[in-house]
Amino acid sequence: MDGSSPPPAVTTHRLIAASAPAHDVERADVEAVGSVAYRKLYKKREPIYPKAAQGVFRRAKWAILGVLLVIYYATPWIRWDRGPGRPDQAVLVDFAGRRFWFGPIELWPQEIYYITGLLILAALGLFLFTSLFGRVWCGYACPQTVWTDLYLWVERRIEGDRAAQIRLAKQGWTLDKIGKKAVKHAAWLAIAAATGGAWVFYFGDAPTLVREIFTGAASPTTYGFIGLLTFTTYALAGAMREQVCTYMCPWPRIQAAMMDEQSLTVTYRKDRGEPRRAFRKGESWDGRGDCIDCKQCVVVCPQGIDIRDGLQLECINCALCIDACDAVMEKMGRPKGLIAYDTDLNMDRRSKGAPERFDLVRYRTVIYALSMVGVAALMLYSLATRQTLQLNVIRDRNPAFVTLADGSVRNGYTLKIINMQPRARDVTLSIEDAPGAVMTIPGATVAGDVAHLRAAPDAVTETHVFVALPREAVHEASHTITFAVSDAVADADGRIAVDRNPTAFLSGVHDDD
Q1: Which residues pair with 68 in a beta bridge?
Q2: Which DSSP string corresponds to 449-468?
Q3: CA neighbor of 446 nearest in space, from 454, 436, 455, 438
Q4: Domains of the chain: which residue ranges?
Q5: What kind of architecture, by CATH, is found in domain 389-506?
Q6: What is the 8-class DSSP label of residue 482?
Q7: Looking at residues 294-310, what average pLDDT do you find?
Q8: pLDDT tens across 476-512, in order?
Q9: CA dihedral over 178, 179, 184, 185, signed as positive or negative
Q10: Residue 206: which H helix or E strand, with range?
């Protein structure tokens, strides 16, 4: 670039007549305003009016969009019977009850590492699919893409396709234009509000929240989050659109580290398309490429770029340009696939006359896949062997220890017995690694270093414990004792739940004292 401003984008949409290519292929006089060559720092956004595409990839995107929206909106309404006193919502993030419910799985706050494991699995999955198929996540499953596609569909239903939208944008503010714009934005706001509402349903009982929201009984926090998510959905999918992918999202800038020369990406096959020029009826295909420069690949692109410029940061691999180009090639009687999912390696191999090849199994993909299997196996093993009875011990800091009248030394501890079962448990609390220890629990019966307690169902039972050691058993200023808690009844799988927690016992004395 020489620093001068690019030519203004021409947004007319017309059918070339006198100089039209054969078979009435529509040619668009349009510039790729989303490409880096047409972007200038602080330049006002030029609106992009993508034309509706038809074809295999567009149908696949509609199917994926439908499935993802159904999952998002319907999941909070799925019921799961967990018994009396427990929520019956299948997926619930219960902040008030400090639980995360996912079907039969119940996660407590101290088990946040499972969420970390899920995030690691998601990241590794994203790395794997990117190394295999490029930015397939961005083109098909990213929420920004899904909701933008939905907003574009609404826009076309109300204002018409690309040509009609351009004409509407150029005309004055007539009653017809005001009406269409008002209906469109009202529909967008309704979708945004439904999106925000569905999100808060994951954090409370959905039927109850719906009733509270519409009767004004919901909390200010609920209305606040619905408003926030309504605004962000409306702004990102309705107003910002491709700018989110180009400027805000970090993924385009790090995807190159995930890809190699065998990664499938949406590619314009220059070896077949060049040299490009318009095609006249009766003209020979000898000495020219298959690209007739109709720019249909540009007008369907939601990012406003020209795929013929090569791999670009702005490209989300939605493959709509493939559908548009295949339709043109079919009309021209030429083979499909001028724009297709392809690899840099195959481009190079074709230029050398070598056969194409695509290897799914590569060092990169094997590492990602094995890492996913390893993390998943670790999580499954941890879930299968997780304890439903846990013990946390907090030693009193003040006083650190007390010397009693008979010379024995006493420490105080706060014990939290975590019972993850929906039934109350009779548990045995004991002390290990402390011969001669005497345990005292206010309000409980204790025999030496063993006590019997009752752990409340699906709750944390807190108790304060004093442990005294005789003077002759204390030889160091600090040594380790272990609290152990065990259930008196076996779980459904026949295991006796036991948990141990070592802690420090302070005395302030030494062997030479």
Answers
A1: none
A2: TEEEEEEPTTEEEEEEEEEE
A3: 438
A4: 44-249, 389-506
A5: Sandwich (2.60)
A6: E
A7: 93
A8: 888 889 999 998 877 666 677 889 999 999 987 765 5
A9: positive
A10: helix 206-215
Query: What are the structure tokens assigned to 481, written together?
Result: 């004792």
Cα–Cα nearest to 64, from 160, 156, 147, 186: 147
**343 pLDDT above the threshold of 80:** yes
Query: Both tokens of residue 237?
Result: 């999918």
Q: CA separation (Å) from 102 to 8, 106, 112, 419, 443?
A: 53, 6, 13, 19, 38
Q: Which pTM value belongs to this model? A: 0.83
Residue 111 has which token pair?
């088990």
Distance of CA 332 to the CA centre of its chain: 42
Q: What is the rounded CA–CA span in Å between residue 47 and residue 33?
A: 9
Instruction: Give the E-state strand segments of 56-191 in sequence order.
Output: 91-94, 99-102, 105-107
List pLDDT tens digits, range 163-197. Answer: 999 999 999 999 999 999 999 999 999 999 999 99
Which whole-number Å values give the CA distances from 479 to 177, 409, 433, 475, in the listed order? 81, 13, 10, 9
Residue 18's alpha-carbon distances to 29, 92, 193, 329, in angstroms, are: 15, 63, 49, 20
Whether residue 29 has pLDDT greater than 80? no
Q: Which residue in 117, 37, 190 sits closest to 378, CA to CA?
A: 117
- The count of other CB atoms within 10 Å of the CB of residue 139 is 22
> How far from 183 is each of 153, 156, 157, 190, 194, CA to CA, in Å?
13, 12, 11, 10, 16
CA 450 – CA 461 distance, rounded (Å): 17
Rounded to whole angstroms, the Cα distance separating 323 from 376 reads: 37
